[in-house]
Amino acid sequence: MFYNRYYNKEKSANPLEINKKFIFMKINNSKPILFYILISFISLLIVGLVGAIIRLISIPAILITLVIIGGLSYYKRIGPWQGVLNSFIKNKKKSSDLSLISKKEAAGKSLKSIEQLITLINDKVKTKALEDEKNRVSLELDRGDIILVVFGIGSSGKTSLIRALIKNIVGKVSPEMGSTKTKETFRLNLKGLQRGIKIIDTPGILEAGIEGREREKSALMEARKSDLILVVIEGDLRSTETKTIRSLSKLGKRLLLVLNKIDLRGENEEKRLIEILNSRCSDFIEPKDIICTSASPQTIAIPGGKPYQPLPEINSLIRRLANILHEEGEELIADNILIQCNNLGKKGKKLLVKQRNQSAKKCIDKYGWLSSGVLIITPLPIIDMLAAAAVNAQMVIEIANIYGVKITNERAKSLALSVGKILATLGLVKGGVSIISSTLSLSLPTLIVSKVIQGVSVSWLTRIAGASFITYFQQDQNWGDGGIQEVVEYHYNLNKRDEYFKSFIRRAYERVIDPLVEKNFKKLPPKSRPLREGDS
Ligand SMILES: Nc1nc2c(ncn2[C@@H]2O[C@H](COP(=O)(O)OP(=O)(O)OP(=O)(O)O)[C@@H](O)[C@H]2O)c(=O)[nH]1
Ligand SMILES: [Mg+2]
Fold first, then answer.
1. Helices (H) and strands (E) in the chain, counts
2. Closest Cα to atom 23, ligand 1: which residue?
3. Where are the domains of the chain?
4. For residues 71 and 285, what is the distance between their CA atoms, to the nearest angstrom?
5. Residue nearest (by alpha carbon) to ligand 1 atom 29
6. Nearest CA to 395 among 342, 458, 452?
7. How many CB atoms lie within 10 A of CB 424?
8. For residue 160, which of 240, 230, 226, 237 has the smallest C-alpha distance?
9. Which of 59, 185, 457, 494 is least enclosed, having the fewest CB within 10 Å?
10. Are the C-beta atoms of 262 and 293 separated by less than 8 Å?
11. pTM
12. Cα angle at 145 between 139 and 151, to 5 degrees?
């Protein structure tokens, strides 16, 4: 059954002898006589039409007709008009070159802004890692090779496919999964392509065990850095496999799905599988990018004769590869570098946001306990005045500074006032005081209870106000669609949540309550307090 398959299919003595001519082979071979008859017929029709328009066939009509024939001839790569029309086409190419140049310029600019971002990050280890990554991407900007990563589950035939493509016995091939343990790089040259191709073999994905997972990570890392990915499969896709390759496509990666080992299947089964794959991947892979290969076909026993060793069947893959790289190669490289720059930028920004949030939280903590100390000494007569005590303009200036924003004293005061007003008018001050007093009243001596409640409440309200300012400065000095009220309410509700509230009360005991009780009631036995998780 499989024997026939090889006689029906085209064999190639040297599949790598692919060039531009080869890509257009299909066009050139497709019934040229019919094509010439069609061109003559269209020309006559046009001559007739043009003649009718200017009432008789004249020199201008003939000239127009000749230009049209030239155009049609160029489209099919024939005729003497090619040179003339080339200059028109070049203009079109220039504009796509321009888009490439602008993509490279955008990448250059993005790298410059990453340099500035790195100077803002304090963590030396993380800064070094970002810097190394930035230098690697900078080098990518000037590189000459196209990077092609061969990716897929273990034992699907990735290394065998590379052997067939480069016509050399490289890497380790075995029926067991995990034969390729680390990435390996080879060179592949396709004739007619200016750039060389760096072809990277990767370990299989979705293998069991810690080592398997580590190998998958390294394969994914290579895939994310590639210009083009060959995803090698040997049957239907598993759902996790589909998820992984879909996520690569979402990152902007260009994929070709290579269905290998087709020598093990009948043609009907192959057709059915392709239909299934088409429907599974219709959202991210075009049907023409699903290609069948047989990288290392099985030897076929011939009764009474010598066993037959079929040649690898990879012609359709080479044709598609040459086509894609010829038409999209430059664009793929530029897109890939831009994607890497953007990812690096995102990584840097994430680090900076984390660092800024940590510093801002420390600042809020400091102001929270400061106001708490002040109120314990001098409690306020009216509860709503706590809002004003909680929102300190100096704290607003410091938080703004942490986010790289310089604001005036006046602006800080007005921001503080608006958040204070919201706290008071929405009843959040009263609400907060009542939650805190119901938590603390029972466990505290009556003598200090009211002072402590005010002190702890002001610290809690400072947290809510501070967190609201973090949101405001993180969003480039914008309260968002719901305005200041929504932000303040959000942080109020968040801080009311059990996990946050309990940890705050524990800090309140450490910072305020215990020292105060100790100072005033040295001889009293210790009171009950909220338990830590794990306390018994
Ligand atoms: N029948 C058949 N077997 C193939 C084909 N391609 C590869 N194989 C066999 O499949 C097995 C695995 O091939 P490898 O090239 O090692 O597969 P791999 O994907 O590199 O495997 P890992 O490196 O372990 O991830 C080997 O026994 C190959 O001989 C094919 O087209 N047809
Ligand atoms: Mg391998």
1. 20, 6
2. 180
3. 2-57, 97-300+307-347, 379-520
4. 33
5. 296
6. 458
7. 20
8. 230
9. 59
10. yes
11. 0.67
12. 100
Assigned CATH class of 97-300+307-347: alpha beta
CB 431, CB 386: distance < 8 Å: no
* Integer Cα distance of 250 and 358 in angstroms: 32
Q: Choose the residue to mutate in 3, 150, 160, 181 for probing ligand 1, maximizing ligand atoms within 8 Å of C-beta.
A: 160
Pocket flag, ligand 1, residue 71 (CB < 6 Å): no
For ligand 1, the distance from its centroid to the CA atom of residue 312, given in whole angstroms, is 12
Supply angle C-alpha 245, 227, 131, rounded to 5: 100
Q: Which of 155, 200, 241 to mutate to test the pocket of ligand 1 (most atoms within 8 A of CB)?
A: 155
d(CA 109, CA 103): 10
